[in-house]
Specification:
The protein is an alpha+beta fold and about 80 residues long. It has one domain. It has 3 helices and 2 strands, in the order H-E-H-E-H. It has helices at about 10-15, 30-45, 70-75; strands at about 20-25, 65-70. The chain has a two-stranded parallel ribbon. The chain is globular and about 45 Å long.
Length: about 80
């Protein structure tokens, strides 16, 4: 039996306390989910379990949340 690899868990409170974060969305398989996130955030409702990224709400007013999309994910 191989022991599990070391890993780190980042909770929503930890992520929301960050002053800078990057979100990477890659691949055509993520296109639909990315569109759903955009539609959800445009309506500005609270977090929804179906879209975990919506629970990321930086607590600092000057926090920077940068999204990086590849062409396949971003193409409509």
């Amino acid at each position: 039996v191989t022991p599990p690899r070391p890993r780190m868990t980042m909770t929503y409170p930890l992520l929301n306390a960050a002053r800078a974060m990057a979100v990477l969305v890659a691949g055509a398989a993520k296109r639909h989910a990315l569109r759903r996130v955009g539609e959800h955030l445009a309506q500005q409702p609270g977090p929804t379990p179906q879209l975990p990224i919506t629970a990321i709400r930086p607590a600092h007013a000057d926090a920077d949340m940068t999204w990086y999309l590849d062409r396949d994910a971003a193409t409509t």
